[in-house]
Amino acid sequence: MLVYLIFVVSLIVLIYGADIIVGESGKIALKFGISEYIIGATLVALGTSLPEMAASINASINNKPELSISNIVGSNIMNISLVLGLVLILSKNKIKPSEFIEKESIWALFPVLLFILIIQNGIISRFNGFILTIIMVAYILFLLKNNKSAIDSIDTSNEELKNFSWIKSSLLLIIGFLMVVYGADYTVDSASKIAKSFGVSDWLIGVILVALGTSMPELVVSISATMKGKADMAIGNVIGSNISNISIALGAAAIANPIKLNFYNYLFDILTMLIATIIIVFMNTNKMYSRAVGILLLLLFSVFIEHSSHAIL
What is the enclosing helix (H) or strand (E) of 43? Predict the structure, then answer.
């Protein structure tokens, strides 16, 4: 019973820590006059990916390769099928994202295709990890180069900016990082123990339980943005988070400790991630932002969960 309590509490600490980092990073970005869109696609996306990053690095260091990769694969599937599916269904107004988002969405495919190419060799080496992280660097440079026209003018009368304190933000960032690191440590450890007690593999626990928990920041941020009439930012957050998950989170995990995995043992989940990614690219390039597409994505999520539940049983 104690292990379940530890799992829930550590997951809450992990998510809340990420929330603190996202909030303070956003304030610092605004202080420097960075556009709201770039904040959502980079800082917020990176911030909401911190739980995945911390969980995967921790699992990799502790020689749990299945948990390290399954967390990323499951999170990317859920970000698109569950999070984006709900965004499209809950969006009250017709979504009219900029042409920039249409061009940007193709970036979501790059890390997924590279991951599939690399993992077929059965190992993600440190060199492969560095290559994956370069994708995120290239993506950020792309955003900065092509989104200069979207830079917002900062409202100096904003009370949040007037009351901004470097000392306060720095302390909160440190606290947030500590919460994420230690939260990830206990989340991975307790999840692994739960898996063993039920005779379930680390992969299935990671691809469902840990992935669902670490996807909570994306879910909360995206639905909040949608309810505020900023569904385009929610879409950008999903794309940025998924790119970050593979490039930064998985790349850093491989740099920390090379990851060995049999690609063909987990073909269904990896192909589901690829299909979900193709759907979001097709949706953006063809401007198909309807509730019907949202229902389709939720159906994909249900198929993924159904397949995983059968594997558990």
Answer: none
If you search the block for the tokens 């999840």, which residue do you land on?
191
Q: Which CATH number characterizes residue 199's domain?
A: 1.20.1420.30
DSSP string, 16-27: HHHHHHHHHHHH
Is residue 239 a contact partner of residue 41, using CB atoms and an 8 Å limit?
Answer: yes
pLDDT in tens, 14-30: 778 877 876 777 677 66
Do residues 73 and 269 touch, judged by C-beta distance below 8 A? yes
All residues at 6 or more sequence positions from 9 whose CB lies less than 8 Å from its CB, including other chains: 186
User: How much is the pTM?
Assistant: 0.79
Strand partners of residue 123: 260
* Cβ–Cβ under 8 Å, residues 246 and 71: no
Q: How far apart are CA 84 and CA 277, in angstroms?
A: 11
Q: Which domain holds residue 235?
A: 2-312
Cα–Cα distance between 95 and 235 in angstroms, integer?
A: 10
Measured CA distances, 56 to 13, 115, 220, 254, 273 (Å): 16, 15, 21, 9, 17
Q: Between the CA atoms of 188, 67, 191 and 266, what dihedral angle is there, to the nearest 10 degrees?
A: 170
Q: Tokens in use for 171?
A: 């302390």
Count of domains forming the chain:
1
3-state secondary structure of 105: helix
pLDDT per residue as tens digits for the range 120-161: 889 999 999 999 999 988 988 888 776 554 444 445 455 556
d(CA 211, CA 82): 12
**CA distances to 9, 58, 261 from 5, in Å:** 6, 20, 30
